[in-house]
UniProtKB/TrEMBL annotation:
Location(s), subcellular: Cell membrane
GO cellular component: plasma membrane
Residues of the full protein shown: 192 to 419 of 419
Catalytic function, reaction form: ATP + protein L-histidine = ADP + protein N-phospho-L-histidine
Topology in membrane: Multi-pass membrane protein
Top class in the EC scheme: transferase
Organism of this sequence: Paenibacillus piri
Protein name: histidine kinase
Amino acid sequence: MQDEIVKSEKIKMIGEMAASVAHEIRNPLTTVRGFIQLFGNANLEPDKKEIYQKICLDELDRAQLIITDYLTLAKPDPDIVEKINVNGELDYLSNVLLTYANYNRIQVDKTPSENNDLCILGDRYKFRQALINIGKNAIEAMNQGGSLRLKAFLRHDGVVMIISDTGAGMTPEQVKRLGTPFYSTKEKGTGLGTMVSFGIIKKMDGKIEIESEPGKGTTYTLLFPAAE
Ligand code: ADP
Ligand code: MG
């Protein structure tokens, strides 16, 4: 009897993990697909091509890392802690999100920190995964077009990163459900993106604040301890 319970719990967990892996692999695949389409454009400048190629390779590496991550999920995972340059990640994020934004008439505004050396601590690839999930939701909320704002700066209490959209917005009840598994209002959604993001951010001692208004848009304010 006890064995049966343990077995069914395990099957349930494996199923949930598979769904989550599929979700996280889809993001890099969509990005790479977008760039390969851009490569077909004869007017593409050579230096742009080089940047896009680098992003494709990075994204494929990320997909591979995600698979490795989930396969080793059962083992205690000693998280990598490295210095992450905030402006560098803001650049990376805006480049990745531009491929999604191009489809939907979305303008991307980026305001990097005045301090180019501003850093936080964490696992770079996981952090990217967290930001891309949040940014992708922002773009998906603006299917009539809109503007996506990405911002980073140092405040008295830490490093702030802001991701804000002028999309559909959410009611307070919907905001409360963010980060819980399998909550999705999308036809093809899995409801795992925010759960994965929030988990990564909390592991970095980050704080998440969400302001949202239906019909107006949503602002994510992330706060991290600054790295020395
Ligand atoms: P998925 O994107 O697969 O639906 P997520 O966990 O990423 O799953 O998001 C859960 C839900 O939260 C979305 O389906 C959507 O309803 C809502 N949501 C998240 N971010 C935003 C946003 N920026 N604007 C409006 N709704 C959002
Ligand atoms: Mg999502």
